[in-house]
Amino acid sequence: MTAQILDGRAVSAAILERVQREVAEFVGSHGRVPVLATVLVGDDPASHTYVRMKASRCAKVGMRSQRIELDETISTETLVNKIRELSDDPEVDGILLQHPVPGHIDERAAFEAIAPSKDVDGVTRTSFATMAFDEGGFRSATPGGIMALLDAYDVPLSGKHAVVVGRSPILGKPVGMLLLTRDATVTYCHSRTVGLADLVAQADVLVAAVGRPELIRGEWIKPGAVVVDAGYAGNKGDVEYAAAAERASLITPVPGGVGPMTIATLLAQTIKAAREHGSAGHLGT
Q: What pLDDT, on a 0 to 100 scale, did the predictor assign at position 285?
C-alpha cells in the first residue's frame, strides 16, 4: 500500500479562491477592506517569515494586513494594552499574535486580551470552549485547517479511533475536541505517554502534533490509517514519512500538508469576522 497524499496546497488554494470572492463581495457591500492585525514581538526569524507569508496571502485575497512590531523587551502589560487597543479598534476585523512570544511574557494573558469576536486564530479560552461545545465561534487555525483537509477528502470520522499525539492549547487539545464533536473516539497522547507505539497502532486517524521530528515510526502506523502530521522542523514532521506512507491510506506531506491549511483557515475566519462586524455595526467586542 502506498498512501494517497492529503494535498494541503491544493485544498487551501480552493479555500483562498472562495475567500477572495467573499472579500470582493464584502468590499462592494461595505465600502471597506477587511483588516487582519498581526502582532509580532521580537526578532525571531521564523516568526518574521510566517508573518510575511500571512501578509502575502492577505494581499492575494484582497485583505489588508496591519503589522505591529514590538520590541522583545516589552512587558506583558504593554503587550496586553496594545492588543486591547486593537480589540477596540473598529477598523480591525481579526487579530493574530504571532507565537511563540519571548519567554518573560505571559502568553496566555496576551491571548486573552484578544476580543473573542476578533480571535480569528482561535487562541482564547472562549474560542476553545465554543469548539469543545460545537457552538460555532472561531476554531484554532491549525486544527480548523486539519478538519477542513479531512473533509475535503471525505475522511469518515464517526465511530473511528482518533489518536492525537500532542496536547498544546492551540493544536493538540483543540483538534481532539473537534474530532470528538464529529463522533470520533479520541485518545490523547504526549511526550510522557507510556506505550506510545501501541496506542498509535490503534489509530484509524492519527494527528501528530508533538513537535519532535520523526518521533512516530512508520512501523507503528495501522495499515489503512489516515495520518495527519502537524509537526515541522528542518523540513521534517513528527512522523517517519516514507515508512508511514507504505502503511497509511492517506497522509499529509511535510511541507505542503497542514501548513497551507492553517493560513487558509485564518483568512477564512477573518472574512467571517468582518461580515459579523458589519452586520453588528462593526463593534469591537
A: 40
